[in-house]
Design a protein that fits this description.
The structure is a single chain. With 248 residues, this protein is mostly helical.
Length: 248
């Protein structure tokens, strides 16, 4: 008889604590005002690489850079690179993003949950582009190494990278703009930033993608997140103005 009220009180306390440890909306919006130019540059950079790959003008560069990166090998580096890519393989790639979205929604960050779902949509962008490009993946040879893994689709762009930048990049943005305790904010943003920085090299190191696949994915993913954060700030700003505006 008492279990349900107890659970409800505990849930309410968790929600209240989560909101107490986030910054006020005006501060969060101000922290998010940056990177529009970066997003535009990223889009143009992606288009440039797309054109070069489509015209098959990047193959020599891709092979040389792949061999150079794979030359730096060690058991520790193998484990680090495998760990960096782990979140992008099924089943975890299909379970963790929805869990993040559900957690935000349960904590009553419902706008944030909706935008995090849109950020996860970079996976769909990757799937569509792979169908258009149909670039072959690297093939193991005398010098080039390819680690066995459950791979799907063509090589361009890197699904891992663009999905990480969308899902975990936007999550890092939310952490940076919302979390009040400095130590916690730095830890979360730093951890997510490290994950984003490592996933690209890991895809080349494991032989699953060419460097241009990875670079193009970082650029397009960044543009996507910048556009998403711009829309998010507008929605949050409109909602805040609606709350503080006196009734007509």
């Amino acid at each position: 008889m008492t279990a349900a009220p107890t659970i409800e009180r505990a849930t309410e306390a968790a929600v209240q604590k989560a909101h107490e440890e986030t910054l006020p909306t005006p501060v969060a919006l101000e922290r998010g005002r940056f990177a529009t130019a970066m997003g535009v540059l990223g889009l143009f950079g992606f288009l440039g690489i797309f054109g070069a790959v489509r015209a098959r003008r990047s193959e020599a560069f891709d092979l040389a850079m792949s061999l150079k990166l794979q030359h730096q090998r060690s058991p520790l580096l193998d484990r680090v690179m495998a760990a960096a890519s782990w979140l992008g393989f099924p089943p975890q790639s299909r379970l963790i993003p929805p869990a993040i979205i559900a957690t935000l929604f349960a904590l009553r960050f419902r706008i944030e949950a909706g935008f995090e779902a849109l950020a996860w949509g970079t996976g769909l962008v990757s799937t569509l582009l792979k169908e258009v490009m149909k670039r072959p993946r690297p093939v193991a040879g005398e010098d080039l190494r390819v680690v066995v893994a459950p791979l799907g689709g063509s090589s361009f762009p890197s699904g891992h990278v663009i999905t990480y930048v969308g899902t975990y990049g936007f999550l890092a943005y939310l952490a940076h703009t919302l979390i009040r305790p400095v130590a916690l904010r730095r830890a979360v943003v730093g951890g997510l930033g490290a994950l984003l920085a490592l996933v690209g090299p890991s895809r080349i190191y494991q032989g699953h993608h060419w460097p241009t696949d990875v670079t193009a994915s970082y650029m397009l993913g960044t543009s996507y997140v910048v556009a998403l954060t711009t829309l998010y700030r507008r929605v949050k700003g409109d909602r805040r103005r609606a709350r503080v505006s006196p009734p007509a």
